[in-house]
Amino acid sequence: MTLLSHDRYCSEILAQTEQLRATLRGVALDTVVPTCPDWTVAQLGRHLGNAHRHATRLVRERIVDYKPDLSTDSTAGAETFDAAGLDAWLAEGAEELAATLREAGPETPVWTFGAEQKASFWARRMTHETVVHRADAASAAGAPFTVAQDVAADTLDEWLGIITSPLAQAFKPQLKELLGQGRTLHLHATDTPPELNAEWFVEAGGESIEWRRAHEKADVAVRGPMTEILRVFYRRIPADSDLVEVVGDRAALEYWLERTAF
């Protein structure tokens, strides 16, 4: 289930990329990105632009049989762009991706790393990839970061869907360390309208990690504004930030966060 329409995702790819570009204007390309300290701003931009182009190719060419090359360094060559070149390249990639997704429509069969093997997966995935890297750009620029509540909630839904999938567990064995531990986690956005139902209950027990939108007692709860809940769960701000409240077993929260980081 998704919160947003295919057309909305396409529009968000454009809007989120434009906001990211605006955030980075005037920031030196060799600036370290605090939330991704192995990257500079140039590498962050290169990574996102490559992600957009990769998704565009899969959808445009209707690729249904594909084996990812996990050894590929998507940040290679970042040093070849000046600031203006990187900005234009990011704009071009987002525009090409949105146009390709709109032309294909949500039901076109396409390879993905999820259960859903169609173009709608990439519209959603690239929306949230761009949202989270916009948070990285804000950290590099020392700028504020906010995101629409429905987009933030869907970003968190998608992330939970990814980290609880068998494919993700095969790619990242640390996720399997959560299994059978019986640890439970509750995320509660405190600034959203009731109809958004912005609460999540996550538990690991037996052979799978399960999650649902629900208000339930857990070993540890994280409460705060929707944007900050998202940033904590994506490890873009620390769990001990004064922007959120942590109630219960903080060690259980850190255990979750350490093993779900990509």
From TrEMBL:
Gene3D superfamilies registered for this protein in UniProt: dinb family like domain
Highest taxon of source: Bacteria
Domain called MDMPI C-terminal: residue spans: 150-254
MF GO annotations: isomerase activity
UniProt keyword list: Isomerase
Claim: Methyltransferase is one of the keywords in the record: no
Domain annotation Mycothiol-dependent maleylpyruvate isomerase metal-binding: ranges: 13-138
Alphabetical list of InterPro entries matching this protein: DinB/YfiT-like (IPR034660), Maleyloyr_isom (IPR017517), MDMPI_C-term_domain (IPR010872), MDMPI_metal-binding (IPR024344)
Name of the protein this chain belongs to: Maleylpyruvate isomerase family mycothiol-dependent enzyme
Organism: Streptomyces hesseae
Lineage: Bacteria, Bacillati, Actinomycetota, Actinomycetes, Kitasatosporales
